Amino acid sequence: MPATLEVAGKDIGPDVNGLTDNFALEGLTLGDPNNSNLVKVQLIDTYDNQDDGQTECIYVENFAMHTGATLDLNGLTLYYLNDESPDAYLADGGVFDSAGGGALVQIPEPATLALLTLDALGAPLRR
Known about the structure:
The protein is mostly beta strands and 127 residues long. It has one domain (3-126). It has one helix at residues 110-122, and strands at residues 3-6, 25-30, 39-44, 58-65, 69-72, 77-80, 95-97, 103-106. The strands form 2 sheets. Strands 1-3-5-7 form a 4-stranded parallel sheet, with no helix packed on it. It has a 4-stranded parallel sheet with strand order 2-4-6-8, with no helix packed on it.
């Protein structure tokens, strides 16, 4: 039987504001890089933490999984920032189970988002 992790955040999409005042986690590491024991965690949404009846999600600033770890998304969404290394969550071979739906979504870094916004604003000027 997997360990469970209650998602409690309001789902505002892949936005850094989801990390502020929204039941966000500073870090979540599944497994141990020095020990490949099997670890399985399943996301759940048992309680309505937002009082609006909408499906909730989880926001994580720094997320990593190691060999032997499995995350069952269970139809829910995990948003992660990983500002130091955007692909760190894949580095050590963790497994994501999305058979029941759900998504693992990276939040664009604020600097990257600002560049995209500037580019979008400048596009009409080039025409």
